[in-house]
Amino acid sequence: ELGAWFELAGCCHKIGEACWQMGNYEEAKEHHMAALDLRQRLCGNTDDAREWCDIVDTYNRLGHRCWELGRFDEAREYHSRGLDLFTWLCTHRPPFREDWWNWRWLRGMCLSLGHDSWSQGRQEEALDYYRRSLDAAERAWSILVKKDSAEEYFAACIQMAQALMESGDLQLAGEYVQKA
Length: 180
Hints:
Low-confidence stretches: none
Strand content: under 5%
Helix content: over 70%
Oligomer: single chain
Number of strands: 0
Largest sheet: none
Shape: globular
Radius of gyration: 17 Å
């Protein structure tokens, strides 16, 4: 019975994605919020980290959607909530820590928060998130060397180099280009 409720939350999420693709942005957000509400209530009854990851994913998608709409403070709030929950999962679910895919996910969340911070003129904060993104990419690489991990590590190094160049630190930017 619990599985059917998780499926309903997944359907709300998919409807939200479809609404977004059709340009119905507010309706998309409503469906994502419904999925989030269901998932939060249901996860109190499960230890399955994958179900908890769906909450992280919903926060992340809401953050992306708000960022795309220019609602930067709201985007930052959703991305921060996703990052906080992910950190909690890694702390309280040790097997979760050893899955390279989760570190790729963390990389994406930190990168999103870096973009959010940069777009609002908070460059030091953005650089911190970009560094965390790079650390997560390195962790994913160390767990399981795959082509995708190598590409993400390269992308994280280049993103960091670009941010450092824009902030005027050309020497450190050059070091990240060398890492790439």
